[in-house]
Amino acid sequence: MHYLPASEDDKRAMLSAIGAARVDELFKDIPPEIRCEKGLDIPAGLSEQELKTRMAAMAARNTAPGGAPCFLGAGAYDHFSPAAVDHLLSRTEFYSSYTPYQPEMSQGTLQSIFEFQTMMADLTGMDVSNASLYDGASATAEAALMASRIRRGKKILVARSIHPAYREVLGTYLRCLDLDTEEVPFGRDGRMDLEALSSALCPDVCALLVGQPNFFGVVEDLPSIARSLEAVDKKPLLAVTVSEALSLAILNAPGSSGADIVAGDARSFGLPLGYGGPYLGFVTAKKAHIRQIPGRICGQTTDEEGRRGFVLTLTTREQHIRRERATSNICTNEGLCMLGATIYLALMGRRGLTELARLNLSKSEYLKEALAKRGITPLFDGPTFNEFAVKLPAGAASKAAEALAGAGMIGGYPLGGDYADLQDGYLVCATEQVRREDCDRFAEVLGGLK
To answer: What pTM was estimated for this model as a whole?
Structure first.
Protein backbone atom coordinates (compact mmCIF):
# COMPACT_ATOMS: atom_id res chain seq x y z
CA MET A 1 0.00 0.00 0.00
CA HIS A 2 1.41 3.39 -1.03
CA TYR A 3 0.93 6.70 0.74
CA LEU A 4 0.04 9.37 -1.83
CA PRO A 5 -0.01 12.83 -0.20
CA ALA A 6 -1.99 14.63 -2.93
CA SER A 7 -4.02 17.59 -1.72
CA GLU A 8 -7.18 18.77 -3.50
CA ASP A 9 -5.12 21.57 -5.06
CA ASP A 10 -2.59 18.98 -6.31
CA LYS A 11 -5.39 16.93 -7.87
CA ARG A 12 -6.89 19.96 -9.60
CA ALA A 13 -3.47 20.93 -10.98
CA MET A 14 -2.86 17.45 -12.36
CA LEU A 15 -6.33 17.23 -13.92
CA SER A 16 -5.83 20.62 -15.53
CA ALA A 17 -2.47 19.56 -16.95
CA ILE A 18 -3.97 16.53 -18.70
CA GLY A 19 -7.14 18.32 -19.80
CA ALA A 20 -9.62 16.47 -17.58
CA ALA A 21 -12.35 18.12 -15.51
CA ARG A 22 -12.84 15.29 -12.98
CA VAL A 23 -11.14 12.11 -11.88
CA ASP A 24 -14.11 10.10 -13.24
CA GLU A 25 -13.07 11.02 -16.79
CA LEU A 26 -9.94 8.90 -16.36
CA PHE A 27 -12.14 5.79 -16.12
CA LYS A 28 -14.55 6.51 -18.99
CA ASP A 29 -13.30 3.50 -20.98
CA ILE A 30 -14.44 1.11 -18.23
CA PRO A 31 -18.02 -0.06 -18.97
CA PRO A 32 -20.50 1.52 -16.50
CA GLU A 33 -21.99 -1.85 -15.56
CA ILE A 34 -18.74 -3.02 -13.95
CA ARG A 35 -17.76 0.23 -12.25
CA CYS A 36 -18.08 0.61 -8.50
CA GLU A 37 -20.52 3.52 -8.21
CA LYS A 38 -20.42 3.74 -4.42
CA GLY A 39 -17.66 3.90 -1.88
CA LEU A 40 -16.08 0.79 -0.41
CA ASP A 41 -17.67 -0.59 2.75
CA ILE A 42 -14.89 0.59 5.04
CA PRO A 43 -15.63 2.22 8.41
CA ALA A 44 -14.20 5.67 9.01
CA GLY A 45 -11.39 6.23 11.44
CA LEU A 46 -9.47 2.99 10.95
CA SER A 47 -5.80 2.93 11.79
CA GLU A 48 -3.30 2.11 9.04
CA GLN A 49 -2.84 -1.40 10.44
CA GLU A 50 -6.60 -2.00 10.65
CA LEU A 51 -7.10 -0.66 7.12
CA LYS A 52 -4.44 -2.98 5.66
CA THR A 53 -5.99 -5.95 7.44
CA ARG A 54 -9.43 -5.03 6.10
CA MET A 55 -8.17 -4.59 2.52
CA ALA A 56 -6.24 -7.88 2.67
CA ALA A 57 -9.41 -9.68 3.74
CA MET A 58 -11.31 -8.15 0.81
CA ALA A 59 -8.54 -9.12 -1.62
CA ALA A 60 -8.57 -12.69 -0.27
CA ARG A 61 -12.09 -13.11 -1.65
CA ASN A 62 -10.57 -13.23 -5.14
CA THR A 63 -9.20 -16.47 -6.59
CA ALA A 64 -5.85 -16.41 -8.35
CA PRO A 65 -3.34 -18.96 -9.66
CA GLY A 66 -1.18 -20.08 -6.79
CA GLY A 67 -4.11 -19.91 -4.40
CA ALA A 68 -6.17 -22.56 -6.19
CA PRO A 69 -5.60 -25.35 -8.73
CA CYS A 70 -5.72 -23.69 -12.15
CA PHE A 71 -7.07 -25.49 -15.22
CA LEU A 72 -7.22 -22.35 -17.35
CA GLY A 73 -4.79 -21.92 -20.25
CA ALA A 74 -5.93 -20.25 -23.47
CA GLY A 75 -2.63 -18.42 -23.94
CA ALA A 76 -1.72 -17.81 -20.28
CA TYR A 77 -0.23 -20.89 -18.64
CA ASP A 78 0.34 -21.48 -14.92
CA HIS A 79 3.96 -22.61 -14.57
CA PHE A 80 6.30 -22.70 -11.58
CA SER A 81 9.16 -20.20 -11.57
CA PRO A 82 12.27 -20.80 -9.40
CA ALA A 83 12.93 -18.14 -6.76
CA ALA A 84 16.32 -17.45 -8.33
CA VAL A 85 14.63 -15.79 -11.33
CA ASP A 86 13.08 -12.96 -9.32
CA HIS A 87 16.13 -12.72 -7.09
CA LEU A 88 18.50 -12.12 -9.98
CA LEU A 89 16.05 -9.79 -11.73
CA SER A 90 15.90 -7.61 -8.61
CA ARG A 91 19.63 -6.85 -8.74
CA THR A 92 20.00 -3.15 -9.49
CA GLU A 93 22.30 -3.60 -12.48
CA PHE A 94 19.46 -5.47 -14.22
CA TYR A 95 16.44 -3.76 -12.73
CA SER A 96 17.51 -0.22 -13.59
CA SER A 97 19.26 -0.86 -16.91
CA TYR A 98 17.29 -0.35 -20.10
CA THR A 99 18.73 0.70 -23.43
CA PRO A 100 21.95 -0.98 -24.63
CA TYR A 101 22.95 1.83 -26.99
CA GLN A 102 26.54 2.12 -25.73
CA PRO A 103 28.19 -1.32 -26.06
CA GLU A 104 31.15 -0.41 -23.87
CA MET A 105 28.74 0.41 -21.01
CA SER A 106 26.12 -2.30 -21.66
CA GLN A 107 28.00 -5.58 -22.08
CA GLY A 108 25.83 -7.38 -19.49
CA THR A 109 22.58 -6.29 -21.11
CA LEU A 110 23.86 -7.10 -24.59
CA GLN A 111 25.07 -10.53 -23.50
CA SER A 112 21.69 -11.39 -21.95
CA ILE A 113 19.95 -10.40 -25.21
CA PHE A 114 22.42 -12.52 -27.19
CA GLU A 115 21.87 -15.53 -24.91
CA PHE A 116 18.07 -15.17 -25.17
CA GLN A 117 18.26 -14.99 -28.97
CA THR A 118 20.51 -18.06 -29.05
CA MET A 119 18.13 -20.08 -26.87
CA MET A 120 15.01 -19.08 -28.82
CA ALA A 121 16.66 -19.82 -32.18
CA ASP A 122 17.66 -23.24 -30.83
CA LEU A 123 14.19 -24.03 -29.48
CA THR A 124 12.39 -22.98 -32.68
CA GLY A 125 14.95 -24.51 -35.07
CA MET A 126 15.58 -21.19 -36.81
CA ASP A 127 18.75 -19.24 -37.65
CA VAL A 128 18.10 -15.85 -36.06
CA SER A 129 15.96 -14.37 -33.32
CA ASN A 130 15.00 -10.88 -32.21
CA ALA A 131 14.32 -9.56 -28.70
CA SER A 132 11.91 -6.66 -29.07
CA LEU A 133 8.22 -7.56 -29.02
CA TYR A 134 5.47 -7.11 -26.45
CA ASP A 135 3.53 -10.38 -26.62
CA GLY A 136 2.51 -13.30 -28.80
CA ALA A 137 -0.32 -11.37 -30.46
CA SER A 138 1.85 -8.45 -31.64
CA ALA A 139 4.62 -10.91 -32.59
CA THR A 140 2.14 -12.81 -34.79
CA ALA A 141 1.07 -9.58 -36.47
CA GLU A 142 4.69 -8.56 -37.02
CA ALA A 143 5.40 -11.99 -38.54
CA ALA A 144 2.55 -11.44 -41.01
CA LEU A 145 3.90 -8.01 -41.98
CA MET A 146 7.39 -9.46 -42.29
CA ALA A 147 6.12 -12.18 -44.65
CA SER A 148 4.26 -9.64 -46.78
CA ARG A 149 7.45 -7.62 -47.23
CA ILE A 150 9.40 -10.70 -48.30
CA ARG A 151 6.86 -12.23 -50.70
CA ARG A 152 5.11 -9.02 -51.82
CA GLY A 153 1.72 -10.70 -51.86
CA LYS A 154 -1.69 -9.16 -51.17
CA LYS A 155 -3.30 -11.96 -49.16
CA ILE A 156 -2.46 -13.75 -45.91
CA LEU A 157 -4.10 -17.04 -44.99
CA VAL A 158 -4.81 -17.41 -41.28
CA ALA A 159 -5.75 -20.65 -39.54
CA ARG A 160 -9.10 -20.28 -37.78
CA SER A 161 -7.57 -22.32 -34.96
CA ILE A 162 -5.06 -19.58 -34.05
CA HIS A 163 -5.73 -17.84 -30.73
CA PRO A 164 -8.76 -15.54 -31.23
CA ALA A 165 -7.00 -12.62 -29.53
CA TYR A 166 -4.01 -13.07 -31.84
CA ARG A 167 -6.33 -12.97 -34.87
CA GLU A 168 -8.03 -9.86 -33.52
CA VAL A 169 -4.73 -8.03 -33.05
CA LEU A 170 -3.67 -9.15 -36.53
CA GLY A 171 -6.86 -7.60 -37.92
CA THR A 172 -6.07 -4.34 -36.13
CA TYR A 173 -2.57 -4.24 -37.62
CA LEU A 174 -3.77 -4.96 -41.15
CA ARG A 175 -6.96 -2.88 -41.15
CA CYS A 176 -5.44 0.13 -42.91
CA LEU A 177 -2.96 -1.75 -45.10
CA ASP A 178 -3.37 -3.11 -48.59
CA LEU A 179 -3.48 -6.69 -47.30
CA ASP A 180 -6.38 -9.12 -47.18
CA THR A 181 -6.79 -12.09 -44.87
CA GLU A 182 -8.71 -15.31 -45.36
CA GLU A 183 -9.34 -17.84 -42.63
CA VAL A 184 -8.63 -21.53 -43.20
CA PRO A 185 -11.02 -23.81 -41.25
CA PHE A 186 -10.08 -26.72 -39.01
CA GLY A 187 -11.26 -30.30 -39.44
CA ARG A 188 -12.86 -32.80 -37.10
CA ASP A 189 -9.47 -33.62 -35.61
CA GLY A 190 -8.89 -29.96 -34.66
CA ARG A 191 -6.10 -29.62 -37.19
CA MET A 192 -6.05 -27.38 -40.25
CA ASP A 193 -8.25 -28.67 -43.08
CA LEU A 194 -5.64 -29.38 -45.76
CA GLU A 195 -8.22 -29.60 -48.55
CA ALA A 196 -9.55 -26.15 -47.64
CA LEU A 197 -5.97 -24.89 -47.54
CA SER A 198 -5.26 -26.17 -51.05
CA SER A 199 -8.43 -24.49 -52.33
CA ALA A 200 -7.44 -21.17 -50.74
CA LEU A 201 -3.91 -21.09 -52.18
CA CYS A 202 -3.37 -18.74 -55.11
CA PRO A 203 -0.57 -16.53 -56.51
CA ASP A 204 -1.66 -13.57 -54.35
CA VAL A 205 -1.05 -15.47 -51.09
CA CYS A 206 2.22 -14.40 -49.46
CA ALA A 207 1.95 -16.29 -46.17
CA LEU A 208 0.07 -18.80 -44.06
CA LEU A 209 -0.21 -18.32 -40.30
CA VAL A 210 -0.78 -21.44 -38.22
CA GLY A 211 -0.58 -22.13 -34.48
CA GLN A 212 1.59 -24.86 -32.99
CA PRO A 213 -0.03 -26.13 -30.83
CA ASN A 214 -3.14 -24.32 -31.96
CA PHE A 215 -5.71 -22.61 -29.69
CA PHE A 216 -7.37 -25.96 -28.96
CA GLY A 217 -4.05 -27.42 -27.80
CA VAL A 218 -3.96 -29.63 -30.90
CA VAL A 219 -0.57 -30.32 -32.48
CA GLU A 220 -0.68 -29.39 -36.15
CA ASP A 221 0.86 -31.54 -38.89
CA LEU A 222 3.37 -28.91 -39.98
CA PRO A 223 5.27 -31.08 -42.52
CA SER A 224 2.03 -31.77 -44.43
CA ILE A 225 1.09 -28.09 -44.32
CA ALA A 226 4.55 -27.14 -45.62
CA ARG A 227 4.22 -29.62 -48.50
CA SER A 228 0.87 -28.06 -49.45
CA LEU A 229 2.56 -24.67 -49.73
CA GLU A 230 5.38 -26.05 -51.84
CA ALA A 231 2.84 -27.07 -54.49
CA VAL A 232 2.28 -23.39 -55.31
CA ASP A 233 4.55 -21.77 -57.93
CA LYS A 234 5.28 -18.73 -55.78
CA LYS A 235 5.54 -20.56 -52.46
CA PRO A 236 3.95 -18.61 -49.60
CA LEU A 237 5.94 -18.38 -46.39
CA LEU A 238 4.89 -20.60 -43.50
CA ALA A 239 4.69 -18.52 -40.32
CA VAL A 240 4.12 -20.54 -37.14
CA THR A 241 2.83 -18.88 -33.98
CA VAL A 242 3.45 -20.39 -30.54
CA SER A 243 1.41 -19.32 -27.50
CA GLU A 244 2.73 -22.08 -25.18
CA ALA A 245 6.50 -21.84 -25.47
CA LEU A 246 7.09 -24.91 -23.28
CA SER A 247 5.80 -27.06 -26.15
CA LEU A 248 9.01 -26.23 -28.03
CA ALA A 249 10.91 -28.47 -25.60
CA ILE A 250 9.06 -31.62 -26.69
CA LEU A 251 7.62 -31.09 -30.17
CA ASN A 252 9.69 -31.12 -33.34
CA ALA A 253 11.12 -27.65 -33.84
CA PRO A 254 8.97 -25.66 -36.32
CA GLY A 255 12.10 -24.85 -38.31
CA SER A 256 12.73 -28.56 -38.94
CA SER A 257 9.09 -28.96 -40.07
CA GLY A 258 9.14 -26.37 -42.84
CA ALA A 259 8.54 -23.06 -41.04
CA ASP A 260 10.08 -19.90 -42.49
CA ILE A 261 9.15 -17.66 -39.54
CA VAL A 262 8.27 -18.59 -35.94
CA ALA A 263 6.58 -16.03 -33.70
CA GLY A 264 4.98 -16.32 -30.32
CA ASP A 265 5.06 -15.69 -26.61
CA ALA A 266 7.76 -16.85 -24.18
CA ARG A 267 5.95 -15.81 -20.98
CA SER A 268 5.85 -19.47 -19.87
CA PHE A 269 9.60 -19.22 -19.27
CA GLY A 270 9.82 -17.91 -15.72
CA LEU A 271 7.44 -14.94 -15.91
CA PRO A 272 4.43 -14.61 -13.59
CA LEU A 273 0.81 -14.59 -14.65
CA GLY A 274 -0.65 -11.09 -14.52
CA TYR A 275 -3.82 -9.33 -15.53
CA GLY A 276 -2.74 -8.10 -18.97
CA GLY A 277 0.90 -9.10 -18.66
CA PRO A 278 3.75 -8.55 -18.84
CA TYR A 279 4.25 -10.98 -21.69
CA LEU A 280 7.27 -11.63 -23.91
CA GLY A 281 6.91 -11.74 -27.68
CA PHE A 282 9.55 -13.15 -29.98
CA VAL A 283 10.18 -13.68 -33.69
CA THR A 284 12.71 -16.13 -35.12
CA ALA A 285 13.40 -16.70 -38.81
CA LYS A 286 15.68 -18.13 -41.45
CA LYS A 287 18.90 -16.20 -42.04
CA ALA A 288 17.74 -15.22 -45.53
CA HIS A 289 15.05 -13.05 -43.94
CA ILE A 290 17.24 -11.41 -41.30
CA ARG A 291 16.86 -7.87 -42.67
CA GLN A 292 13.08 -8.06 -42.50
CA ILE A 293 12.92 -9.20 -38.88
CA PRO A 294 11.39 -6.53 -36.59
CA GLY A 295 13.22 -5.06 -33.63
CA ARG A 296 16.89 -5.58 -32.94
CA ILE A 297 19.47 -8.35 -33.14
CA CYS A 298 22.45 -8.56 -30.82
CA GLY A 299 25.64 -10.20 -32.03
CA GLN A 300 28.86 -11.61 -30.61
CA THR A 301 32.26 -10.38 -31.74
CA THR A 302 35.84 -9.87 -30.53
CA ASP A 303 37.68 -6.65 -29.84
CA GLU A 304 41.16 -5.66 -31.05
CA GLU A 305 42.70 -7.73 -28.24
CA GLY A 306 40.69 -10.83 -29.10
CA ARG A 307 38.33 -10.55 -26.13
CA ARG A 308 34.70 -11.69 -26.45
CA GLY A 309 32.24 -8.82 -26.75
CA PHE A 310 28.65 -8.03 -27.72
CA VAL A 311 27.14 -5.37 -29.96
CA LEU A 312 23.85 -4.39 -31.56
CA THR A 313 24.39 -6.00 -34.95
CA LEU A 314 21.14 -5.14 -36.69
CA THR A 315 18.56 -2.56 -35.62
CA THR A 316 15.78 -2.05 -38.13
CA ARG A 317 13.51 -0.07 -35.80
CA GLU A 318 12.33 3.42 -36.69
CA GLN A 319 14.38 4.75 -33.76
CA HIS A 320 17.61 3.72 -35.46
CA ILE A 321 17.11 4.17 -39.21
CA ARG A 322 15.07 6.30 -41.57
CA ARG A 323 11.45 5.83 -40.57
CA GLU A 324 10.24 4.88 -44.06
CA ARG A 325 12.77 2.04 -44.18
CA ALA A 326 11.99 0.64 -40.72
CA THR A 327 10.51 -2.85 -40.43
CA SER A 328 8.60 -1.96 -37.27
CA ASN A 329 7.88 0.86 -34.85
CA ILE A 330 8.32 -1.45 -31.87
CA CYS A 331 10.18 0.69 -29.35
CA THR A 332 11.03 -1.59 -26.43
CA ASN A 333 13.30 -4.57 -25.99
CA GLU A 334 11.19 -6.07 -23.15
CA GLY A 335 14.57 -6.20 -21.41
CA LEU A 336 13.53 -7.31 -17.93
CA CYS A 337 11.07 -9.95 -19.19
CA MET A 338 13.63 -11.21 -21.68
CA LEU A 339 16.24 -11.47 -18.92
CA GLY A 340 13.82 -13.38 -16.70
CA ALA A 341 13.20 -15.91 -19.48
CA THR A 342 16.94 -16.22 -20.12
CA ILE A 343 17.65 -16.91 -16.44
CA TYR A 344 14.83 -19.46 -16.33
CA LEU A 345 16.07 -21.32 -19.42
CA ALA A 346 19.63 -21.34 -18.09
CA LEU A 347 18.45 -22.73 -14.75
CA MET A 348 16.29 -25.42 -16.34
CA GLY A 349 18.76 -26.50 -18.99
CA ARG A 350 17.92 -28.60 -22.02
CA ARG A 351 17.16 -31.76 -20.03
CA GLY A 352 15.18 -30.00 -17.30
CA LEU A 353 13.00 -28.19 -19.82
CA THR A 354 12.30 -31.43 -21.70
CA GLU A 355 11.38 -33.24 -18.46
CA LEU A 356 9.03 -30.40 -17.54
CA ALA A 357 7.34 -30.59 -20.95
CA ARG A 358 6.88 -34.35 -20.53
CA LEU A 359 5.38 -33.78 -17.09
CA ASN A 360 2.90 -31.30 -18.58
CA LEU A 361 1.97 -33.79 -21.27
CA SER A 362 1.43 -36.60 -18.76
CA LYS A 363 -0.66 -34.38 -16.47
CA SER A 364 -2.97 -33.39 -19.32
CA GLU A 365 -3.31 -37.01 -20.49
CA TYR A 366 -4.21 -38.04 -16.94
CA LEU A 367 -6.83 -35.29 -16.83
CA LYS A 368 -8.16 -36.41 -20.20
CA GLU A 369 -8.60 -39.96 -18.85
CA ALA A 370 -10.19 -38.73 -15.61
CA LEU A 371 -12.75 -36.70 -17.58
CA ALA A 372 -13.46 -39.62 -19.93
CA LYS A 373 -14.39 -41.76 -16.92
CA ARG A 374 -17.04 -39.14 -16.15
CA GLY A 375 -18.38 -39.24 -19.68
CA ILE A 376 -16.62 -36.08 -20.86
CA THR A 377 -14.70 -36.75 -24.06
CA PRO A 378 -12.32 -34.62 -26.17
CA LEU A 379 -13.93 -32.37 -28.75
CA PHE A 380 -11.19 -33.23 -31.27
CA ASP A 381 -9.23 -36.43 -31.78
CA GLY A 382 -5.95 -34.81 -32.83
CA PRO A 383 -2.85 -35.10 -30.58
CA THR A 384 -2.51 -32.44 -27.88
CA PHE A 385 0.16 -31.07 -25.56
CA ASN A 386 -0.96 -29.75 -22.13
CA GLU A 387 -4.29 -28.33 -23.27
CA PHE A 388 -7.35 -29.83 -24.95
CA ALA A 389 -11.00 -29.08 -25.66
CA VAL A 390 -13.86 -31.22 -24.36
CA LYS A 391 -17.56 -31.39 -25.16
CA LEU A 392 -19.88 -30.60 -22.23
CA PRO A 393 -23.64 -31.19 -21.99
CA ALA A 394 -25.74 -28.47 -23.63
CA GLY A 395 -25.57 -25.26 -21.58
CA ALA A 396 -23.02 -26.65 -19.10
CA ALA A 397 -20.08 -24.56 -20.34
CA SER A 398 -21.65 -21.39 -18.96
CA LYS A 399 -22.11 -23.01 -15.53
CA ALA A 400 -18.66 -24.54 -15.24
CA ALA A 401 -16.78 -21.50 -13.92
CA GLU A 402 -19.16 -20.94 -10.98
CA ALA A 403 -19.31 -24.65 -10.09
CA LEU A 404 -15.53 -25.01 -10.15
CA ALA A 405 -14.97 -21.78 -8.23
CA GLY A 406 -17.33 -23.11 -5.56
CA ALA A 407 -15.10 -26.17 -5.32
CA GLY A 408 -11.98 -23.98 -4.91
CA MET A 409 -10.66 -24.34 -8.47
CA ILE A 410 -10.08 -22.08 -11.47
CA GLY A 411 -11.95 -23.56 -14.42
CA GLY A 412 -11.27 -23.66 -18.14
CA TYR A 413 -12.29 -21.49 -21.07
CA PRO A 414 -15.73 -21.70 -22.77
CA LEU A 415 -15.22 -21.74 -26.54
CA GLY A 416 -18.70 -20.56 -27.53
CA GLY A 417 -17.83 -16.86 -27.24
CA ASP A 418 -15.16 -17.15 -29.94
CA TYR A 419 -16.53 -20.04 -32.01
CA ALA A 420 -20.29 -20.02 -32.60
CA ASP A 421 -20.15 -23.64 -33.79
CA LEU A 422 -18.51 -24.79 -30.53
CA GLN A 423 -21.10 -23.59 -28.01
CA ASP A 424 -20.62 -26.67 -25.82
CA GLY A 425 -16.85 -26.70 -26.19
CA TYR A 426 -14.69 -26.16 -23.10
CA LEU A 427 -10.91 -25.67 -23.20
CA VAL A 428 -8.97 -27.08 -20.23
CA CYS A 429 -5.28 -27.14 -19.36
CA ALA A 430 -3.10 -29.10 -16.94
CA THR A 431 0.44 -27.97 -16.13
CA GLU A 432 2.97 -29.14 -13.55
CA GLN A 433 1.17 -26.95 -11.00
CA VAL A 434 -1.85 -29.27 -10.63
CA ARG A 435 -1.77 -32.58 -8.76
CA ARG A 436 -3.50 -35.84 -9.66
CA GLU A 437 -6.03 -35.35 -6.87
CA ASP A 438 -6.79 -31.89 -8.31
CA CYS A 439 -7.47 -33.51 -11.70
CA ASP A 440 -9.75 -36.08 -10.09
CA ARG A 441 -11.71 -33.39 -8.25
CA PHE A 442 -11.93 -31.24 -11.38
CA ALA A 443 -13.32 -34.20 -13.35
CA GLU A 444 -15.83 -34.93 -10.59
CA VAL A 445 -17.20 -31.38 -10.58
CA LEU A 446 -17.26 -31.05 -14.36
CA GLY A 447 -18.84 -34.49 -14.73
CA GLY A 448 -21.64 -33.50 -12.39
CA LEU A 449 -22.81 -30.60 -14.56
CA LYS A 450 -26.12 -31.06 -16.31
So the answer is: 0.87
